[in-house]
């Protein structure tokens, strides 16, 4: 509607003041709460044309628009703001547009690539990964809903010193056991050896320090670290025995990852592996060395000096020829752009890597790849627990599967205490419990502005009141129950709502909120912020529940109003389902 009001204002300005409005920027906003009106036009920029006070200019425009456009019911003026109130017919027509599912055709869609998850194959996915995956998948769905072609990719960090640590621990203390032997999920099994390495490594450091060595030197000279580096060299040189162990242990991890991804409802269009992309990065660095973009120092390190950009000297190849994270990220970026040529590549990575991506952009720019301006870092805050920060090496992280199990157990307990689902078949009840549990987990995380650090609290997330997933899911189930009862009562509400229906203010507000949905999706896509949709859905649900509390639906005697309220309820349910779907959350029809 804002576009139509802009047209009305331009028409008025051209007619009344003979203004050329082709390049004129006109601001139309939703009227603030507590002021009578639906849309507000800022009039101050027009006084230079009218040569009048803002209030008088607003009156000229209001009179003109009210007399010529039938969907404007009234107007009022507060200083330099013209508030326009729409007719009830206008809002009924907007609801009918939703009923008939009129959609705007998107022209020239962009191709966007979203890279997220990026797990290391030395440990299971944890709570921090859950935020990453939910952000990445939700942003992808939102960008797609906004009319873009989206490619979801996952770069798996399957090589490097951290992988060698798990391998070494298994080789030394694993006794050739497998996940099948122990009944432990593959990624958890390998992760336990990563923690074991750290424990043994710290013991060696402590011993060396007690024998008079400085701590920094002890960290370098510890036998386990020396052995892990030797494994990395053997891996990069293609040692068949090391490669065999590496493939076997990574296979265990991938099987574990797949279980977790499936539980979260996460999928990818393309998988990249660091074990492949680092070779591309190595070749690019060598070309850059020949082109004098990079330099090799007397210790045989290859690096680039970015101090003139306020950054630092960045190592790209170690003295022994092994690569660093930046090397593989350069190779991966080239591969992604050469394979898919996206208009933009969005990296979903925590804010501790802000500096890394500044360096990556700078290097891509110096390589004259044309890619630098087409990458964007969606930087998000870390997830902590009430008791503090998680640490993978010390085994203090919250395993993603354990957390989902805990959420399901809590949801089951709440369900049993309430007794609401006791009459359902056991398999159906368990499915609803799963939806509630994962909906609570996902919504609690996704509603937070990505840029903010957050603390995850299990008890708060699964509350059935307030800004939570279960509260929204319950409202959807309530509306579905109303619609089922209407069907049993043989109340038909096919077709459109009659434009003779008399609407209450709260009903107009609900229709207005529904018409905002596409704008919210568009804004969330521009800002890469799923939390905007989460909070929109919550406010819609709050408004509907207040309406439901204050006014009857199925007992309404006026058939036109009954039809309208059923249509309204259905559209609210559809919007909840659509919006929550963009947040990777399912909504049950029964609770």
In short:
By secondary structure, this protein is an alpha/beta fold. The chain has 22 helices and 14 strands. The radius of gyration is 30 Å and the shape is globular.
Question: What structural keywords apply?
Answer:
3 domains; alpha/beta; Isoleucyl-tRNA Synthetase, Domain 1; Rossmann fold; 56% helix; Gyrase A, domain 2; five-stranded parallel sheet; 22 helices; 591 residues
Can you offer a commentary on this structure?
The protein has helices spanning 2-17, 47-50, 54-68, 88-99, 127-145, 161-173, 179-182, 186-210, 215-221, 223-236, 240-264, 274-290, 325-340, 354-366, 400-418, 426-446, 458-461, 469-488, 505-515, 517-527, 531-550, 559-582, and strands spanning 28-30, 39-42, 72-78, 81-86, 111-115, 149-156, 270-273, 295-296, 302-305, 313-317, 344-350, 375-380, 383-384, 454-455. It is globular. The strands form 4 sheets. The chain has a 5-stranded parallel β-sheet with strand order 7-6-5-11-12, sandwiched between helices. It has a 4-stranded antiparallel β-sheet with strand order 1-2-4-3. A 3-stranded antiparallel β-sheet has the order 8-9-10. It has 22 helices and 14 strands. Strand 5 (111-115), helix 5 and strand 6 (149-156) form a beta-alpha-beta unit. The protein folds into 3 domains: 2-86, Gyrase A, domain 2 (2-Layer Sandwich); 117-384, HUPs (Rossmann fold); 400-582, Isoleucyl-tRNA Synthetase, Domain 1 (Orthogonal Bundle), CATH 1.10.730.10. It has 591 residues and is of the alpha/beta class. Helix content is 56%, strand content 11%.
